[in-house]
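Fold these two proteins, one after the other.
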Amino acid sequence: MVTVYLAKDGSYRIVPYHQTTMGVGIAGYAVDVLDSPADEELGARVLAALDTAGRVVPHPHSQEEWSAHTRSFVRAMGYRSHRQLMSANSAVVVSRQGDAVLVLPTDNLGTRGGYSHRSDRSTVVVARPSAVGKAIRAAEASALT
């Protein structure tokens, strides 16, 4: 799974997610930042990130370890705080199964609510860069920020 964040400045941040040894999804630190990409480039970079997503990583066991991970992730995204990250971005979740790519818009509910998946607005497209890029842009347009 990959989350594509669209910042208010128009830049995109593509983040692969992994699974901890306890099966919990967790953001990776390899953030790919794009400024105003064309659909083809956006889709190609998301498909490449999907190829790296899903690794098994150690599970943070203490609140201190979770907090340290969150701080590192926020810094990797280019923000000073989780609040700043949430206020500056909308998000779309992308996953792939074979040649099918699921693009799932989210609603931004703020720092306490996080991003809420909107399955009722999901789209499935073929795993081609231009189709994936266009679907992500359409999903971003339908997301609440």
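Now the second one:
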Amino acid sequence: MSNDQVEDEFKELLKLEKVLSGTVPPRPGITSPPQSKTGISEAELEALQAKADSTPMDFFRDLEWAYQNLGNDTPTGAPSTSALHLLNYGSSARSDFMKLISAYMMKKEKQKEDEDARRDDRRKQMKFINSLRDEMDRLSVDLLRQATDDQLMDACSARGLPFGR
């Protein structure tokens, strides 16, 4: 899959997030997932709704939970009602759901690779900086060894150091 395809899939994933969260009405031709195939009781749904009111929405957490519980007949520990909706969507439209998951996983893997590359770059930069510092220290010592006592005393005086002339 090319980067453009991954980006397109991820944009579709973000659109689905907006639809499921209710901030954007669904597009014509897209049906909402069937209601509660999961066997969750009304009391559990109310508890999840109360939990959702106090917990910030995390679409990717919900998506991962739905993916992990896709084959589970009686899922427990849903982090939100959105997670249940995603699970229902995954059960009813598995192919489309798996496209969403693959786009998400590709993006997550790309982020990990980018972070690893940045970490490696920082290590290379630090190694280079340390080698420059070591070289500067070596050169400073060499220059001090070559300087005469008079030159060192004059340099100290010019800088206002007390052991100058």
